Amino acid sequence: MDNISETVSLIHRGCNLARDLESNLPNLPSRPETVSKSLDEIIRVFGAARERLQSSSAAQHDPMSSYVHVAQQQQQIDASLHEWLRCNYTQAMEDLHIQTQRFASEKSIAATQTDMRDSGADVLHGQIHQAIVSHELNAASSSQSRPRRRRDDGEIRKLTVPAPRIGNTEIPPEDGFTWRKYGQKEIMGCRFPRGYYRCTHQKLYNCPAKKQVQRLDNDPLTFEVMYRGDHTCHMSSTAPSSLPPSDQIKQETMTQTHAVTTQPLGTWLSMDFNARGGGSSSGGRGDGDGDGVGTSITTTTRYGKDVEFPVVDLADAMFNSGSSSSNSMDFMFTSSMDSKWESGDKKN
DNA sequence: TCCATTTGACCACG
DNA sequence: CGTGGTCAAATGGA
């Protein structure tokens, strides 16, 4: 496959999406969610194109460098964004959709007209999501919500990610780690139960990482994921689990303040990657440590074992499907509101 | 048989 | 005492 032509087609797709968005702008006040999702997709497409460009040029000799670069961008954006939100939190909530929309639109158009060396749009989008939930979390913990009991887990990183549209939309989004579910609970005031997961290698490697996954009340196609504790399993040379390079790089230098910045890229990658697999049932076992990255993606798929640089694999994944990102398109715009979790709810 | 998920019960915290 | 987090037995798939 010709990398350039694929990239070009991706850019074209982004342009089309941008045009669609433009025509949809009058609906912004009434349907901010739809517009927001449209933005997501635009950002995603252009981001993929940029990644492709980077991976085919500078990153060729050192694929890690692009990750480092993006990570650094993220750090900078994160700092300013947090500062901005601190000063304008309530207003920020109001302005969020407009801000992202403007940014993405301008970014998208500019990127197609000039070059795409400085994307950051996807990064910013992730930052906005995370900064907001982070602030929500801070606000909540300082007022209504009681602090978490298990203090040994340390900081909490919270983010929102779109649900995989293909297959079971109720499965938690892929994030590159292997998780084992150990509980599910109805939460007061929430329509959907919260799932509790811990690292599959908790026993083997004493990995304290945990996560909680919950669907948003107002948007069942969006998950809110809370990460608690850091993975130690990937530190071990014998550990079967490994991280996407970006995560791995940053995990080691991550501070509590910036911990929240770790996820977007990894999540972004994994979401798209997940789409390639055509989704999978959560009934899968992830089973032995042998099933790594492949066409069959389970809830516990991970990158590192067989794939050196997931961004390359991601790019392939996004283009090998022929229809390019149609999968993610569907998952963005198709609303399949199945909620098996609801039917499976129990007391407690 | 192994391992992941389910799910009712238990427990810590405020 | 209510709620959220975790445990662990039961269950089931490969």
Automatic annotation (TrEMBL):
Start and end of every WRKY domain? 174-236
One Pfam short name: WRKY
This protein's UniProt keywords: DNA-binding, Nucleus, Transcription, Transcription regulation
PANTHER family attached to this UniProt entry? WRKY TRANSCRIPTION FACTOR 21-RELATED (PTHR31282)
List the InterPro entries. WRKY_dom, WRKY_dom_sf, WRKY_plant
> Which GO CC terms are listed, alphabetically?
nucleus
| Superkingdom per UniProt | Eukaryota
| Cellular compartments annotated | Nucleus
Q: What is this protein called?
A: Putative transcription factor WRKY family
Bias type Gly residues, positions: 276-285
Biological source species = Rosa chinensis
Entry-linked PROSITE patterns: WRKY (PS50811)
Please list the GO terms describing molecular function. DNA-binding transcription factor activity; sequence-specific DNA binding
Question: Residues annotated as region Disordered?
Answer: 274-294
The keyword DNA-binding is assigned to this record: yes
